[in-house]
Amino acid sequence: MIPPKFEYFAPTTLHEALSLLRRYGTEAKLLSGGQSLIPLMKLRLASPSYLIDLNRLPGLAYIEEDDGYLRIGAMTREADLESSALIRSKYPILLDTTRFIADPLVRNLATVGGNLAHADPANDHPAAMLALQAEVVATGLDGTRTIPAAEFFTGFFTTALTPEEILTEIRIPIPPATSAGSYVKLERKVGDFAVVGVAAQVSIGEAGVGERVGIGLTNVDATPLQAKAAEDCLRGTRLDADAIRHAAQLAAEAAQPEADLRGSSDYKRDMVRVLTIRALTHAVERARELPAQTGGR
Ligand SMILES: Cc1cc2nc3c(=O)[nH]c(=O)nc-3n(C[C@H](O)[C@H](O)[C@H](O)COP(=O)(O)OP(=O)(O)OC[C@H]3O[C@@H](n4cnc5c(N)ncnc54)[C@H](O)[C@@H]3O)c2cc1C
Q: Of ligand 1's atoms, which has the minimum distance to the CA of residue 138?
């Protein structure tokens, strides 16, 4: 199928893009990597009258640490995340996540901002951003605001962005020393969307006790899910096998997966338990192995 007719704009400044968004409101759609939007338009599940292409906007693709945060520009491609020395050395959870997304062709175009803004509960970055306690920067003509990832995903394919805002940056607090994360995903075949995915990020304090703990779940509810009870039970607790098993059980109980061709809801819930054990165990191992990190908040 081909999409219905639409008017195409390729603004060259953020102000121009935001002005177009204000003018056309909900009749318009932003185009980043196009890896979710274009298939939807071809299937006529999305029929925007106006398409605002963000690909010519300067200064929205970067990966840098600054002022206590890892800052990722919204137009950063998955492939850039994958090849970043900073991500490889200090943020293994993000390297895991991007490598699980589709295939190299998709990753050359798909953006991190688009992955979050699309708010597909089956997308992989949301869970990792929940685990990392990230914030999203939303820019409108009237200024910018930051939205915690935990408040960003408001419903099925729905976010806290207003129709006049563009997601411009993702901010991740630089983790303290002895921190690391892991993202694990069950998929039917390489490059497929998750049956279930689990992201875990831990900071280990004195005597192996969990300090900061973040756990995000993929594709087990209408929105990406933060496993709060599981996180809480690990804070101030030694991160040993028993504690991890208990947290994994709590994560499984928080999941509300729908049965579909990928499995029954009971199967998926049990996969949350299994993958949470794997993600936490791997995160703890990595935190002990990674070189000490500096500059954390
Ligand atoms: C074959 C295939 C397999 C895939 N497998 C996976 C997978 O396993 N895991 C996974 O996570 N993803 C997967 N994807 C999705 C892919 O990662 C998408 O690219 C991503 O979800 C959207 O990013 P994008 O830059 O392409 O956004 P687009 O497709 O350009 O946009 C998606 C939506 O977000 C909005 N949007 C985009 N950028 C912004 C912004 N800066 N501010 C506000 N709104 C914005 C658009 O208006 C649109 O509604 C797959 C895609 C394909 C084609």
A: 42
C-alpha dihedral, 241 to 242 to 248 to 252, nearest 10° = 150
From the alpha carbon of 35, which atom of ligand 1 is closest? 26
Query: How far apart are the CA of 239 and the centre of ligand 1, in A?
Result: 35
Give the pLDDT band of residue 17 (cuts 50, 70, 90).
Answer: very high
Q: Which residues pair with 180 in a beta bridge?
A: 202
Q: What is the mean pLDDT of the chain?
A: 95
Q: Tell me, in angstroms, the distance from the centre of ligand 1 to residue 244's CA.
A: 32
Q: What does the pLDDT read at residue 123?
A: 98
Place of tokens 């607790």: 237
Three-class DSSP labels, 213-268: EEEEEECCCCCCEECHHHHHHHECCECCHHHHHHHHHHHHHHCCCCCECCECHHHH
* Nearest CA residue ID for atom 20, ligand 1: 115
pLDDT at 207 over 90: no
Question: What pTM, to 2 d.p., does this model score?
Answer: 0.96
Distance CA 32, CA 34 (A): 5
Q: How confident is the model at residue 1 (pLDDT cuts 50, 70, 90)?
A: confident
Given the CA of residue 192, which atom of ligand 1 is nearest to it? 8
What does the pLDDT average to over 189-209?
94
Phi, psi for 46 (deg, rounded to 5): -130, 135
Helix (H, G, I), strand (E, B) or coil at 200: strand
How far does CA 161 lie from the centroid of its chain?
A: 15
Q: Which of 18, 21, 22, 35 is the pocket-test mutation for ligand 1 (most atoms within 8 Å of CB)?
A: 35
Average pLDDT value for residue range 139-149: 98
Query: How many degrees, rounded to 5, is the angle at CA 126 between CA 51 and CA 239?
Result: 170
Whether pLDDT at 297 is above 70:
no
